[in-house]
């Protein structure tokens, strides 16, 4: 049997992959031998990341995950380049902060469109191809990891759109896990806490830092590189009997009072 943490010859899509957590996920997968399709809406960041990584097993694609046609084309291009598709890390997300009573509908909808509808579109596009491959008798099982957040488990202040979307991702995970288990496809989610990334820089004021650090038992925010091993674990053969689960990588934030 092959070493369970190697992914040689397998192909995975990572959305929101050009920076922060996404880039850490891309680099970790490449280091484990996988072919990685790095997807992002920001072409400049995508091109820069691809040039810096410079790996022949990397395919960089500009995609708006909230647009159905672009997502379907993404999956087709992955198969065309690498011959098959074995899984997905549904990582793309945005934040647009406002208190609930002050939030404009457009601000609500923008986050729902990317963080929840986008996650569904990517899951559906990849899932269809994983089901097709399973129907052809391919022995390599399909794997999907949806990136949620502790905001989806505990709620959040000033980002009701984000919290609602990430809670929806948990439901998306459990429902897909139930539906696709008969095809041997596992679907799990990772719930991040506060990760040091450019996206969280936009909301991490001194007041924010102090309030959240007091609630994190480990006493610090997460480095992007620390979430990659736990996320990719769900894509390996070592996680073959795990599905429909939510794993928090948050320094203990979800258990704090």
Topology summary:
Blueprint: E1 11-15, H1 20-31, E2 35-40, H2 43-53, E3 58-62, H3 68-82, E4 87-90, H4 105-135, E5 143-149, H5 151-154, H6 160-180, E6 186-192, E7 195-196, H7 198-201, H8 206-213, E8 222-223, H9 224-233, E9 246-249
Parallel strand pairs: 1-2, 1-4, 2-3, 4-5, 5-6, 6-9, 7-8
Would you kindly provide a written description of the structure presented here, covering whatever features stand out?
- Belongs to the short-chain dehydrogenases/reductases (SDR) family.
- It comes from Sphingomonas colocasiae.
- This is SDR family oxidoreductase.
- InterPro entries: KR_dom, NAD(P)-bd_dom_sf, Sc_DH/Rdtase_CS, SDR_fam.
- With 257 residues, the protein is an alpha/beta fold.
- The strands form 2 sheets. It has a 7-stranded parallel beta sheet with strand order 3-2-1-4-5-6-9, with helices on both faces. Strands 7-8 form a two-stranded parallel sheet.
- The longest helix has 31 residues.
- The termini are far apart.
- The model has no long low-confidence stretch (mean pLDDT 92).
Strand content: 15-25%
DSSP summary: helix tally: 9
Q: End-to-end span in angstroms?
A: 44 Å
What is the residue-mean pLDDT, rounded to a whole number?
A: 92
| Category by helix and strand content | alpha/beta
Family: Belongs to the short-chain dehydrogenases/reductases (SDR) family.
Organism: Sphingomonas colocasiae
Protein name: SDR family oxidoreductase
Pfam families: adh_short_C2
